[in-house]
Structure formats: structure tokens, C-alpha cells
Design brief:
This protein is an alpha/beta fold. Helices cover 48% and strands 21% of the residues. It has one domain: Rossmann fold (3-Layer(aba) Sandwich), CATH 3.40.50.150. It has eleven helices and seven strands. Strands 3-2-1-4-5-7-6 form a seven-stranded mixed β-sheet, with helices on both faces. Helix 6 links the parallel strand 2 and strand 3. The longest helix is centred in the N-terminal third of the chain and has 19 residues. The mean pLDDT is 93.
Length: 233
């Protein structure tokens, strides 16, 4: 798994970026703009999956784990959802297509280049009315959610950013009183590349009830899993 990632993420990508004079993320966006149906979020999701499974690997949640994400969002039926780690906007589009009328998703991205790509992806998918992209570090944005973004509590949180931020940001969500009894956290990549600190924190914490969903790394046959942690108050 690690060798394949090094090949895809570092060697192959750098060579292609140099030859084509554009980033992989820009190539994903261009492929969507040329091949997906504008205003159809399902078409956008399917087109990204097609590109990343056939042409260039990318760190979207992917379709296999995406089904676990879908099922969780449908069960929670959130009014206010938070995503940490927007990347190209794949999971923001995937989540928002399932949101009820009037519900909203706040998605946080640290990398300005990724944020710019995601903004175009979200608008092309036609879900910009449901999604608000917040640019900056999660540890700065989370404490602003209540006052600046009028969030009372979060019904659903999807963690898919830096793995070493999973635990501190979960603690920050609790300290800022953003979780209510029944709030659901879903964390991606808990096996590969892995988030052992997070698993240790939520599984041993009496305030959380955890469920593990074994799966595979996006677009690969590498073992991975998602962890659902329900906040018990």
C-alpha cells in the first residue's frame, strides 16, 4: 500500500504535473467539466470516481467507503453537518446531495489551491446553496463556528483531513460545545494511513459509542476502515 501510494502520489504525479504544467487536482476538475452533467451531483461523483480509478489515484473517500458515508448521512439526516478536509470537493458533493431542504454543510479546507478547485466543483454540481466552504486551519475555524457561522450544534461531522488533527479537533469540538447528545462523527482512513490516536481516544472515552466499518483504501485493494463515534453527551 505504501509503495503504491509513493508511486502514485509522488513520482508519477510530479512527472505528469511537469509535463502538463498543471496539478492533478486541476486535471480532475477539467475531466469533470468536460465529462459530467452540470447540476447533477451524482454525475460529478461518478465522473471523479471514474477518473481516479482509471487515470490518476487521488485521496477522495471513493465509492466503496462513500457508500458507508452515504448510509451514515441518511441515518443521521443532519440539519447542520461539518466536513474537515474538502480536498477537491468530492465528499462535499456526495454529502450535500443527500441533505434535506434547508440543511447545510460547512466544509473546511486548509490548502488554498484545493479550496479553489473544490469551489468550482461544488458550483458545477449545483450544490453551492447547501455547501459553505471555509478556508483555513481547522483549529482556527472550529472555535469560530458558533458566533461567525451561527452553528448551535453539529448533527454530523466527517473527519477526512490531516490524521494527526483527528483527536485534537474532536476534543476542540467538545470544548466548544458543538456536539450534542446523538451527534455522529465519521472518520476516514483510520487503518491506512491510520489514525491510532483517534481510535484510542474515542474507543476508551465513555462519552462516545463506536462502530468500525472495515473497507479498502479508495481505488485500491489496501485494507482501510471508517470509524463512527456517536456522542453520548
Amino acid at each position: 500500500g505504501t509503495a503504491a501510494l509513493i508511486w502514485n502520489e509522488i513520482i508519477r504525479e510530479k512527472v505528469t504535473n511537469f509535463i502538463m504544467n498543471q496539478s492533478k487536482e486541476q486535471r480532475i476538475l477539467n475531466f469533470v467539466l468536460q465529462n459530467a452533467v452540470r447540476g447533477d451531483p451524482c454525475s460529478v461523483v461518478d465522473t471523479i470516481d471514474k477518473y481516479c480509478s482509471q487515470k490518476e489515484w487521488a485521496m477522495n473517500v471513493g465509492n466503496e467507503k462513500g457508500k458507508i458515508l452515504d448510509k451514515t448521512v441518511e441515518e443521521v439526516n443532519p440539519s447542520v453537518a461539518l466536513e474537515l478536509g474538502t480536498y477537491c470537493g468530492y465528499s462535499a458533493v456526495r454529502i450535500s446531495r443527500l441533505l434535506k431542504a434547508g440543511a447545510r454543510l460547512l466544509t473546511v479546507e486548509f490548502n488554498p489551491e484545493f479550496a479553489a478547485i473544490a469551489k468550482q466543483m461544488i458550483e458545477f454540481a449545483g450544490v453551492q446553496d447547501k455547501v459553505k466552504l471555509l478556508e483555513g486551519p481547522s483549529e482556527e475555524i472550529i472555535p469560530q463556528l458558533k458566533k461567525k457561522y451561527e452553528v448551535d450544534t453539529l448533527d454530523f461531522v466527517f473527519l477526512d483531513h490531516w490524521k494527526d488533527r483527528y483527536t485534537p479537533d474532536t476534543i476542540l469540538l467538545q470544548e466548544c460545545n458543538l456536539l450534542r447528545k446523538g451527534s455522529v462523527l465519521l472518520a476516514d482512513n483510520v487503518i491506512f494511513p491510520g489514525a491510532p490516536d483517534f481510535l484510542n481516544y474515542v474507543r476508551k472515552n465513555p462519552h462516545f459509542q463506536c462502530t468500525n466499518y472495515p473497507s479498502h483504501l479508495e481505488y485500491m485493494q489496501v485494507e482501510d476502515a471508517m470509524e463512527k463515534a456517536v456522542f453520548l453527551g
